[in-house]
Amino acid sequence: MAPTDFFRQLKSYYFTNGEELPAISTWTAAALSITYTLLYVLPFYLSSTTRPSPTLSRDAPSVVRARIRFVTLSCIISSFVTIYSISTYARASPPETLRLLGWYPIAPLEIAKALLLTALLFAGPLFEKGVAEGEWREWIRGGKIHESLSSWIGWRNYVAGPVTEEVVFRSLLVPLHLLSHVSPTRTIFMTPLYFGIAHVHHLYEFKLTHPHTAFVPALLRSMFQFTYTTIFGWYATFVFLRTGSLPAVILAHTFCNWCGLPRFWGRVEAGVPIGPPLLVGGGRAKEDRDGKRQNVQVADGRLGVGWTVAYYLILIAGAVAFYRGLWPLTASGRSLADFGEGSRR
To answer: Which residues are catalytic?
Structure first.
């Protein structure tokens, strides 16, 4: 069966009476999703090399390195199970399987459009970082890329984390739900819950390293993290279904990690370096080669109120452009699902 025939048949289910039996049951898809989530998180606490303690932070280079090894192994195991399930129960050929996973073809146009769409949503933070704080020169020189990836924390946040999380929670979970005949709309809202739950364990780690913080504030912090990771999961799943591209959602994930949450209140200010790196004190932190925290002293750079006004106007304009471009910028002939009346059942 040609790949186009396979995907045409998969998509057509949502616009027919749905009499054809799914390749796998919804219970099987749910069980595998839970298993993959546990396989991704539990190894963090099964070994002394990955388990944080009151004296060992999750950001310690040794912990980060060990965790990257474990999640990489978890991705490999989960990928083999999913590939076996797709090829055996859906009788998909190798090209069909790779396309369903979003691994191939690479689709550079889809990647570029997904990055543009994500950048529109973060137009305000890009303005603040690049123009107000004057980082655009470093962007051109590529210095920020080297700085971000020169530490294990940066490698985790911008490479290992996005790659492994998108492989498991998008590339593996989404096809399983499609093959169990879960509609694309339900897949968008269901599968990111596993992604959000996979971050709940940070509550335990936070309390471990911040024992004097009351439980309620720590719980609210964890709930907030669960909320925004789930919301991002909705967006990433939508993009993955629409583009059929795993690299597109990986780079969008990396971009979001780099930008951080947009500023929704407060005044835009620029940090101005006034001293050399120190081992203690205020400022913007980075890690040295030994994994110790280094900080650069900074002074507040007062900017006129016009910069703040411009930031919020650009933030709103970017959100409007994002809304208008959500469907056209994710349109692709490599989509994994069609969205119509049948997908909203």
So the answer is: 165, 199
